[in-house]
Amino acid sequence: MWDLDHTKDPVYTAKAHASIINQIDGTGGQVKGYGPPEMASCGLDGCVRVWDVRQQDQPVASFEPLKGSQVRDCWCVAFGNSFNGEERCVLAGYDNGDVKMFDLRMNKLRWEANVRNGVCGVQFDRQDINMNKFVVTCLESQFHVYDARTHHPQEGFASLSETTAKGASLWRPVHLPQNREVFMITAGDGSAHLYKYKYPEQRKVKDSNGKAKGVIGTVELLAEQNLSSQPVTSFDWSGDKEGLFCCGALDQTVRVGIATKLSSL
């Protein structure tokens, strides 16, 4: 980790994984959210680890494959549910389609599902609120939206599945900071797809046994645009200027663009 005002030496260094690190995410501290400043990392070794930047060398939490089991490559990781000083969760996506949610307060697996395709990206709509919903993007142009407010003991979270028209792998879901119902998905063919989530009339109902289960809404494609001839592997919105974004692609180019009229959605 580097301080951009003092780049001579890193402010934090750790040997995080045995092999390639696929993704990191950060949350907490004084700038945004609740709880301690932490980073999550995932890698080819199948491990998900959480690091407190105030503690050198050792992770504060580590979720590893069971001994003797087949090690699956963990491709993506994201923080969420950090709405006070104690609660915090980490989402992780794997190459075999597994999606797992780890509860950091309880230090255990909280929920898991399989979406039958390699998971390229995961993100909560907000890190610093009681978890509301999250998006999972996959190979073969598939993505899934989960309503995380209501968990049914047998059926889990309510969800929907969509497929983009162009048939490319979907790399990154990134929610708009000014409106959590709007999110961009970047694709392996260099395109970007802007969606809006619409809530159902009621977000939960009771099953035949009287247990609450979630009701999923719908998504609407607002716009799509080709940005590169190569996969768009990173994307970020501006927190100050609504619609302003930057993205990076495998053509070694960083692009800056803007999506207009988002305030009217």
Explained architecture:
0% of the residues lie in helices and 51% in strands. It is built from no helices and 21 strands. It has strands at 21-27, 38-43, 48-52, 61-63, 74-80, 89-94, 98-103, 108-114, 119-124, 133-138, 142-152, 156-163, 170-176, 179-187, 191-198, 204-206, 212-214, 218-226, 232-237, 244-249, 254-258. The strands form six sheets. Strands 1-2-3-4 form a four-stranded antiparallel sheet, with no helix packed on it. Strands 5-6-7-8 form a four-stranded antiparallel sheet, with no helix packed on it.
Question: What are its keywords?
Answer:
4-stranded antiparallel sheet, mainly beta, single chain, globular, 21 strands, 265 residues
Provide a compact summary of the structure.
With 265 residues, this protein is mainly β. The protein has strands at residues 21-27, 38-43, 48-52, 61-63, 74-80, 89-94, 98-103, 108-114, 119-124, 133-138, 142-152, 156-163, 170-176, 179-187, 191-198, 204-206, 212-214, 218-226, 232-237, 244-249, 254-258. A hairpin with a 3-residue loop joins strand 11 (142-152) and strand 12 (156-163).
Beta fraction of the residues? over 45%
Mean pLDDT value: 95
Helix run count: 0
Major sheet: 4 strands, antiparallel
Find the structural class using helix and strand composition: mainly beta
Which term fits the overall shape?
Answer: globular
Strand order of the largest sheet: 1-2-3-4
